[in-house]
Amino acid sequence: MTFKQTEVTEILKKLSESSDRYVFMNELVKEAYRLYKKVPIYPGIVGMCVDNVLKETQDIKKGDKIIVKCKGLFYEGKITSIKDGTVELTDVKVLQEKKVAKIKLGKNKVLKYNFSTLGQLWPSLNFEKK
Known about the structure:
Blueprint: H1 8-21, H2 26-38, H3 43-50, E1 65-70, E2 73-83, E3 86-96, H4 117-121
Antiparallel strand pairs: 1-2, 2-3
């Protein structure tokens, strides 16, 4: 059996699928790692758990970490209070989906995705044809 045939790849597949549905992946990836550390010999169970970490619900309470999509904005944070149908969040991350954006760079920090690291770090393992 090769590593690719193990259930570990199922965890990566679940994370990849979730990235298409949810914009905030940080906590999901961390939870997958925490679960894998608890049961490393059962990656299939970890994959099933990852698939159920984020679920749509109205049953929320103080202390819960939630994601809310509202008017094209995504909010992630921990609930500190709930009053009259309004939640107050701390440690808030906000993301807005847009098709196009113009941003003046100036002295802002820019991070660039590099999707060719395998070829750069291990060229002998990069079997893609150019």
